Amino acid sequence: MREVDLFLTITGALFLVVYAVPLLFVPLRFARMFRWALPAEPHLAIYFGRSLGAVAVGVTVMCLRTPLEPGAQRLVLELIMVAGALLTLVHLWGAFRRVQPWPESLETVLYAGFTVAAVLLRARLG
Questions:
Q1: Do residues 89 and 56 lie in contact, with contact meaning Cβ atoms separated by under 8 Å?
Q2: What is the spatial distance between Cα 118 and Cα 83, in angstroms, rounded to a whole number?
Q3: Per-residue CA distances from 8 to 12, 48, 113, 117 (Å)
Q4: C-alpha dihedral, 83 to 93 to 108 to 24, nearest 10°
Q5: What is the DSSP string of the chain?
Q6: What is the per-residue pLDDT across 80-106, written as a single tens digit (0 to 9) for each?
Q7: Cα 11 to Cα 82: distance, rounded to the nearest angstrom
Q8: What is the C-alpha separation between 33 and 49, in angstroms, rounded?
Q9: Rounded Cα distance, 87 and 15, in Å
Q10: pTM score, whole prediction
Q11: Torsion of CA 28, 48, 82, 119, to 10 degrees
């Protein structure tokens, strides 16, 4: 389905450039952009940032491959549904507890939107 390919390609490319690659290669610079206070001992933050960045790169690569592997669309949409729902909950919890900077709370809408879009597109695939 063309809409699914378009959604996964655009979402994958944007997420790759804006989130995944920066988290993988410059996690502390990424954290500063989102207004996080950096710890005095940054090694754990760098480790977690790069780990999340590596997972995000993997997910976005799968999104970008779907036009070449149409049979993978359902599975990749389901991955986005699960990851998006969990990221939405994590960000809602952080916003509720007021332990994250406002750009992180704003991301909740982004993750929820991606999740809803993936659910709707997955339903159209049957």
A1: no
A2: 11
A3: 6, 26, 13, 10
A4: -60
A5: -HHHHHHHHHHHHHHIIIIIHHHHH-HHHHHHHTTPPPPSS-HHHHHHHHHHHHHHHHHHHHHHHTTT-GGGHHHHHHHHHHHHHHHHHHHHHHHHHT-S-HHHHHHHHHHHHHHHHHHHHHHHH-
A6: 999 999 999 999 999 999 999 999 999
A7: 15
A8: 13
A9: 14
A10: 0.89
A11: 10
Kindly report, residue by residue over 13-37, the tens digit of the pLDDT: 999 999 999 999 999 999 999 999 9
Rounded to the nearest 5°, which phi and psi values hold at 35? 65, 30
Tokens of 118: 């993936």
Contact 122, 79 (CB under 8 A): no
Phi, psi for residue 44 in degrees, rounded to 5: -65, -45
Total structural domains in the chain?
1
Tokens of 21: 């690659």
* Cα separation, 3 vs 91, whole angstroms: 28
Residue type (1 letter), 72: A
Q: For 28, how many CA atoms within 13 A lie in the half-sphere containing its CB?
A: 11
